[in-house]
Design a protein that fits this description.
Shape: elongated
Distance between the termini: 78 Å
Radius of gyration: 25 Å
Number of strands: 5
Helix content: 40-55%
Oligomer: single chain
Length: 186
């Protein structure tokens, strides 16, 4: 008799588990069928190229800065790629050059230094991890939402831009439109 009761209890538990799995799976499938996905037209190879460009920019601009400083450099790069004032491709933002009065000026000074070499694998690996967090996981510092420019604290460029904050050795700035109350929107 006890064996029969144990068998009935076990069969009931199995039936309950099957019912729960079926209900959850059906609900999940129904949810997924109603969800709209924004698929990216970017291929995996293109995303990898963007990650490398962003990681190099982070490394050469802020490789030995604190985590937040690295994120700040990445965020300025991303902010520029999302603005109509710069190229929409991250690599094109990083490698952008302008000619002013016959002089070539890079948007990020390391690029004009004719191919600097990675000297610290640990700092580069950390820069790549920050690039992944910012580009793939959409990690952002809320205070840098409108940051488009920065410079080292030992430089005095007199840009006349609104200062947002300082992180480590970098001072971050917004766009001139922020002075007019446009909050940097294009």
């Amino acid at each position: 008799m006890i064996r029969v009761l144990n068998l009935i209890v076990k069969l009931s538990l199995v039936a309950l588990a099957i019912f729960a799995i079926a209900k959850f799976t059906t609900s999940k499938i129904e949810y997924l069928n109603t969800k709209t996905y924004n698929a990216s037209p970017i291929t995996m190879a293109e995303r990898e190229k963007q990650l490398i460009c962003l990681a190099k920019n982070i490394y050469f601009e802020a490789g030995h800065e604190p985590f937040e400083g690295k994120v700040g450099v990445a965020q300025v790069t991303i902010n520029r790629s999302e603005s109509s004032k710069w190229p929409s491709d991250i690599c094109n933002v990083v490698y952008q050059k302008n000619v002013v009065y016959g002089k070539v000026i890079c948007q990020f000074s390391w690029y004009c230094e004719h191919g600097p070499m990675v000297k610290s694998n640990a700092a580069y690996i950390e820069s790549m991890e920050v690039a992944k967090k910012v580009l793939l996981e959409n990690f952002r510092l809320p205070s840098l939402k409108g940051a488009y420019y920065y410079h080292a604290d030992y430089v005095q460029p007199n840009w006349g831009l609104p200062k947002i904050t300082q992180i480590g050795h970098h001072i971050f700035y917004g766009d001139k439109n922020q002075l007019r109350g446009n909050n940097g929107k294009d």
